[in-house]
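Q: What does the assembly look like in three dimensions?
Context provided by user:
Components: two
Sequences:
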Amino acid sequence: MAVIRVELPAHLRALAHIDEEVQLDVREPVTQRTVLDALEAGHPAVTGTIRDHVTGRRRPYLRFYACREDLSHHSPDAPLPDAVISGKEPLLIIGAIAGG
Amino acid sequence: MAKVRVLVGTKKGAFILTADGKRSRWKVSGPHFGGWEVYHLKGSPVNPECLYTSQSLDWFGQVIQRSDDGGKTWGQPGTPPGESVTPKEGMPQGRSNKFVYDESAATGKPLTTHQWYDGTPHPWEFKRVWHLEPSLSDPDTVYAGVEDAALFQSTDGGESWQELPGLRGHATASQWAPGAGGLCLHTILQDPDRHRMFIAISAAGVFRSGDDGKTWQPANQGLHSNYMPDPTAEIGHCVHRIAMHPSRPDVLFMQKHWDVMRSDNAGDSWYEISGDLPSDFGFPIEVHPHEPDTVYVIPITSDSEHYPPEGKLRVYRSRTGGNEWEPLTKGLPQQDCYVNVLRDATAVDTLEPCGLYFGTTGGQVYASADEGGSWTPIIQNLPRVLSVEVQTWR
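A: Here is the predicted structure of the complete assembly.
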């Protein structure tokens, strides 16, 4: 079990009543999918806001970053970087800068 | 003393304004859900402390929230606020925000396509809830009109939603096409004594059910829309709003894309009542709560100029059920006013004399405590107002 740090956009922190970054216990393999599964299980208020309820796909205006890399188009089942798995770096969930 | 609560949905959050029955001094609460587009919030007619709201953003999709204390606190139905929930095995999470079109074989109505703006087939995609209509008899039952157009129902206080698939399964659905704002189901009228419901879709038109929403039929005869290949077709009309007085449910009033219309036979046929209005384009329409033949509209210049004619913001009232209209201007800007009033952004209260309310795309909410005779801005600098509802109780 790895402890994964996740930073959420402000709107989702408000929905989930979270002040700062989330720490999640995630079973290996640590991937986008398993991290989001753990996030939604612990904070069901954000279920469906990051990935579509029906398709399960990342919402198009959201991006996944970590370790100065854009992971948005990686497979949801690909392992996350070691620095994320070790807890050194957070997985960043970022709202695209669009609109006012 | 009566109490009044005005519920305002805006482009950047919700606001709740409260006053006593005099409706002269208003207290403002908000923004609630700051930064979110709040298309609609509405209270249960059975329990005024029970409110439902639809918030959405392109980034995060749809969220439904409910309050059981008149808007002081909110939560997603079924999800205790601020608590991490350990899910039960196999228990679906976040169901209150989940709107899934019914593709079940049991309904016999598999998901098809509707028409896109260019006339090509387009898959149905849920985008947001435009309108929430709580049941007239049960605070835990609420209807949701959504984009792409469909009607959903919750019978557990918003914890889960099921489509009433007979509507979208109608044989004409593959021909429905979006209006400028999307293919949205924006109006839901209930007539439970006759097991009847009416809904309106831009741009498909009015549909009527006589079996509590199971099956539906178009109710657009008499409508004429020049932007269609066949201007009198059975479906395809951009109906902006319909309204009904509960004491006379066979009489319906409509503000269409162009034309103000009336039906005296529950939508079997419609006739025009635009009469002497300066423009028959507009979005909302309301019926006086105590006078079923008194109707209000807010004329807008045209489909390409979404602001009042001559820069004068005027509510028009007919006391004759249409055709003869009088402008109501006292307290409203009569020069250089170029705001719009959207289809869900008007409301009437049930006090005596009745109050009227409307919100503008410029962020003002105007109120009249004398049936429209005079108006006051009760708040002026909100984001673009998307919806206005009012509740009264003692």
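Follow-up: The two ends of chain A are 40 Å apart (CA to CA).
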